[in-house]
Amino acid sequence: MRPQQSMQTFDWFNWLALVAVGVFLGLAIDGLVDLATVSAWGSIIMILGLSAGGLVFYFLIERVINFISIGRFSEPQQLQKPRKPLALYFALPIGIIIGVIGAQFGLAELIL
User: Fold this and answer.
1) Which of 8, 14, 18, 103 could lock onto 91 through a cystine, CB 3.0 to 4.6 A?
2) Residue 70 to residue 76: CA distance in whole angstroms
3) For residues 106 and 96, what is the distance between their CA atoms, to the nearest angstrom?
4) What is the spatial distance between Cα 106 and Cα 62, in angstroms, rounded to a whole number?
């Protein structure tokens, strides 16, 4: 079993960015639930379809850039990658929970 690394300065910035993205995702999830309660299913399907298309486009572009930069579609496998700190794994779910709960208390109107 590999030991966990301690948090470095860049890890803290990465953690903060993931929490911020999670908060915005939580607000978006709350907004989608609000759209579902007023039967705006067409809008929900369009939003989710465009989001899925954006993710597919992002991953395709990433693979093309990776192919151009190293000449193959996948990077060589390392034998053992260092483990990320545990806080980085929980940053996005914590942000989503904060966003959903915060939206119930008016955080969406404050931020957006």
Assistant:
1) 18
2) 10
3) 15
4) 36
The torsion angles phi and psi of 100, rounded to 5 degrees, stand at -65, -45
Helix (H, G, I), strand (E, B) or coil at 51: helix
Single-letter residue type at 72: R
Q: Is the pLDDT of residue 39 over 90?
A: no
pLDDT at 62: 85
Contacts of residue 86, Cβ cutoff 8 Å, sequence gap at least 6: 4
Calpha distance 84→2 (Å, rounded): 10
Q: Structure tokens of 102? A: 């915060």
Question: What pLDDT band is residue 37 in, cutting at 50, 70 and 90?
Answer: confident
Tokens of 21: 């993205």
Task: Give me the mean pLDDT over the 81-99 stretch.
Answer: 89
pLDDT of amino acid 79: 66
Higher pLDDT, 3 or 85: 85
